[in-house]
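Task: complex structure prediction.
Instruction: return structure tokens for all chains below.
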Amino acid sequence: MKVMIGAFVAALVIASLAPVVLNQFGWSSAEQAISESVRLD
Amino acid sequence: MNFKLLGAAVVALTVLAFSPAWAEEAPAVDRTATGGAQTLEDILRRQEQLKVDESFRSENLGDPARAAPMTDQLGTRGGVSDAEVWRSIRYNKIDPTVQSPGPANGVMIQDEGIAWYKLREGPVITYGGLALLGIVVLLVVFYFVRGKIMIDGGPAGTTIERFKAIERFGHWLLAGSFIALGLTGLITLMGRSFLIPVIGADAFAPLASGSKWLHNNIAWAFMLGLVMTFVMWVTHNIPSKLDWQWIKAGGGIFTKSHPPAKKFNAGQKIIFWTVMLLGVSVSLSGLSLLFPFQMPMFADTFGLINSILGTSLPTDLAPHQEMQYANIWHSIVAFVMMVAIIAHIYIGTVGMEGAFDAMGNGQVDIEWARQHHDLWVAEVEARQGKGGSS
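Output:
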């Protein structure tokens, strides 16, 4: 049972770390909404 | 990657083809009386919620080649009227210039979203929900008809190691994340229909938001668990002649016999390959939903299907359409997996005496092992010089 609980905790740890790691590599959904510039010329 | 989705897409199309609402063809309508526009017959069919061929709209977008000279009336339109321009916008058939560049910023209206919404809120929820209820009812009936599968003669009291700690870790990583994904997925899919009427929109909002966060992020644990279990167990799950004997005997479930089996019997192998194949498919469609601009999959898959089968599936898909196809496929595959896993959970817990120990502490009763996996026990005992019980 310890292994089972350990695996559940590991799943939650992975879930918590996933957005942080993805942000580090630039895989953020926020990035998609940002444009580099708005040209008015 | 698209090859991996090919089989999945074929199954999806088969499912859709058997759905009466999708399989029904709209009859050809003579529109000469209206000059190509909507007819009374179209209106009547729509009122009866029958399929209407909308191509008289979606393909009636004007033709710059037939533009009137600049000196004539409408000449400045370039052969395209206001109505035709708006139809082009509705069906995403124009290539507008937008100030904020982005992969989907040029899509102003995405008409196919209505069909996706109806399919998602209708058949997917209805048939998916019925499948889940159906398997639960079936298992309850089975339990009362067959009863719990007991160890013949009772447990021996001595045990043998069935799964190592790393195997159990991989299994529970996959299982725990799958249950979380299933529950949060159901909340996301069905919450609007079933939860908001009960708990209200204010209470549902944080639940939906939390479900989305957990669903998106715990998916990585699911994929890791999938890879771990595949690597550890694939060699034990290669089909053999022995499996056919097991299947012919129905696993001994109704005859109360014990057909021979190695580490995994045919039933377990079916579960293994179901989880692996559908797990890869649901992961790919999930990744496509997480990264729609980096990992669109359905346009290429449809292109491949078209080249093989000669079909005319759409291959020019907006990012929204890619996500809609991925979303529907993701839901269908997830429902099939949930049905299989509910049956797996049943047989691994209340359905069979001694089965849970295999994944609980890794030690199973030697008599249970001899009855359900006799050839595997013989292998282990041969390896350990017949001193294998622990």
